[in-house]
C-alpha cells in the first residue's frame, strides 16, 4: 500500500515566506512566490537538476542509502520543482531524492510544482531545514541572498528558522582562512559551533594552529580556552590609575605641609592654579 505523501513542505514555504520582514511587506514578495502550488506525478525524463543548487555535493550525498530507504518505505516527501517549459521541470529542492529515484530506475517521481521566480531562495529553505546543508554552504548562500536581494540578517533568520544573532555568527564563518573553508566540509565531526568559535578568534595564526588539531578531536571548549589564553597573554591596556594615585599622594603631602604651618609661596600657588586648569581641561575632554 502506497504511503500518503507528506506535503508539509508547502506549508513550510508559505509560513516562512508570508512573515513580515523588518522593512514591511512579506518575505514572499522578496522571492516572487505566487502561492500557486500543485502536486503531480512527473516522468523523471522531464525533470532536470537546478544548476544553482546551493548544496554542492547533492548527487554524491549518500544516494545509495537514501534510495534503499525510499525502496523500503516509499517517498514521504515530494521533490519541489518549477515548470521552465511545457512538460519540462527544474528542481527547486529535493535533488537527492531525484538522484535516488534515478538509482532505483523509477519512471516517475511525485512532485510539488511551485510557481516562483527565485529557485535558489526556495532551495535554501528546504535544504537548510530538512537536508542538513553544511554550515559553510548555508553561510555562502545566505551571504548571496543578503548581498544580491538586499535581505537583512533578520529576514534571513526567518528563512532558516534561526535568530538574527545565529545568522550573524554563521556569516562570520566566511572570514575563516581559505584552508579551513576548503577542508571543513570533508570533516563531518567539525560542528557549526566549532567553526563559529574559530571565526571569532581575531588571530589567523591561532585559527590555523587550532585547525591542525581538528582531526584529533578539537572541541569548542579547546577553542574557548585558546581565546582565554590569548586574552591573558595580551598586555594590559595603558591606565591613568598609577598617575592619579601619585597625584593624590602629592596633594596629601601638600595638605600635610600646610597643616604643619608651612605657607605656599606665590610661585607655588601659581603652579597649583596652572595644574588645576590642566585638570579641568582633562575633565572637559
Quick synopsis:
This protein is of the alpha/beta class and 285 residues long. The chain has 3 domains: 8-160, Conserved hypothetical protein from pyrococcus furiosus pfu- 392566-001, ParB domain; 176-233, no CATH class; 241-284.
General description of the model:
The chain is of the alpha/beta class. It folds into 3 domains: 8-160, Conserved hypothetical protein from pyrococcus furiosus pfu- 392566-001, ParB domain (Alpha-Beta Complex), CATH 3.90.1530; 176-233, no CATH class; 241-284. It has helices spanning 8-18, 27-31, 63-73, 95-103, 119-130, 135-149, 153-160, 164-172, 178-183, 192-199, 204-211, 220-233, 241-259, 266-284, and strands at 37-43, 47-48, 79-85, 88-93, 108-114. It has a 5-stranded mixed beta sheet. Helix 5 (119-130) runs antiparallel to helix 6. The longest helix has 19 residues, at 241-259. It is elongated and about 110 Å long. Mean pLDDT is 79; it is low at 1-10.
**CATH homologous group name of the largest domain:** Conserved hypothetical protein from pyrococcus furiosus pfu- 392566-001, ParB domain
Biggest sheet record: 5 strands, mixed
Contiguous helical run count: 14
Show unreliable segments: 1-10
Radius of gyration: 31 Å
**How helix-rich are the residues, as a percent range?**
40-55%
Distance between the termini: 81 Å
Proportion of beta-strand residues: 5-15%
Number of DSSP E strands: 5
CATH architectural grouping of the largest domain: Alpha-Beta Complex
Output the strand order for the largest sheet. Answer: 1-5-3-4-2
Q: Could you spell the SSE succession in H and E letters?
A: HHEEHEEHEHHHHHHHHHH
The tally of domains stands at 3
| Average residue-wise pLDDT | 79
Question: What fold name goes in the CATH topology slot of the largest domain?
Answer: Conserved hypothetical protein from pyrococcus furiosus pfu- 392566-001, ParB domain
Protein structure class: alpha/beta
Q: Which of globular, elongated, flat, extended, rod-shaped describes the shape?
A: elongated
CATH class of the largest domain: Alpha Beta
Amino acid at each position: 500500500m502506497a504511503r500518503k505523501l507528506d506535503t508539509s513542505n508547502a506549508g513550510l514555504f508559505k509560513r516562512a515566506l508570508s512573515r513580515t520582514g523588518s522593512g514591511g511587506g512579506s518575505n514572499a514578495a522578496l522571492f516572487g512566490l505566487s502561492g500557486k502550488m500543485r502536486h503531480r506525478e512527473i516522468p523523471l525524463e522531464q525533470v532536470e537538476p537546478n544548476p544553482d543548487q546551493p548544496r554542492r555535493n547533492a548527487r554524491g550525498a549518500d544516494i545509495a542509502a537514501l534510495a534503499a530507504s525510499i525502496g523500503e518505505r516509499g517517498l514521504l516527501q515530494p521533490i519541489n520543482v518549477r515548470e521552465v517549459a511545457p512538460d519540462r521541470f527544474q528542481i527547486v529542492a529535493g535533488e537527492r531524492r531525484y538522484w535516488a529515484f534515478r538509482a532505483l530506475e523509477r519512471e516517475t517521481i511525485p512532485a510539488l510544482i511551485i510557481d516562483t521566480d527565485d529557485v535558489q531562495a526556495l532551495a535554501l529553505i528546504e535544504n537548510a531545514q530538512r537536508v542538513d546543508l553544511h554550515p559553510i554552504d548555508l553561510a555562502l548562500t545566505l551571504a548571496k541572498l543578503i548581498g544580491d536581494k538586499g535581505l537583512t540578517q533578520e529576514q534571513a533568520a526567518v528563512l532558516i528558522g534561526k535568530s538574527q544573532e545565529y545568522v550573524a555568527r554563521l556569516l562570520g564563518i566566511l572570514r575563516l582562512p581559505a584552508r579551513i573553508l576548503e577542508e571543513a566540509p570533508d570533516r563531518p565531526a567539525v560542528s557549526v559551533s566549532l567553526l563559529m568559535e574559530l571565526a571569532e578568534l581575531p588571530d589567523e595564526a591561532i585559527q590555523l594552529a587550532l585547525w591542525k588539531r581538528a582531526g584529533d578531536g578539537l572541541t569548542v571548549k579547546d577553542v574557548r580556552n585558546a581565546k582565554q589564553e590569548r586574552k591573558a597573554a595580551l598586555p594590559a591596556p595603558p591606565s591613568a590609575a598609577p598617575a592619579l594615585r601619585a597625584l593624590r599622594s602629592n596633594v596629601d603631602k601638600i595638605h600635610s605641609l600646610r597643616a604643619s604651618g608651612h605657607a605656599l609661596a606665590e610661585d607655588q600657588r601659581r603652579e597649583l592654579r596652572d595644574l588645576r586648569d590642566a585638570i579641568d581641561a582633562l575633565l572637559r575632554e
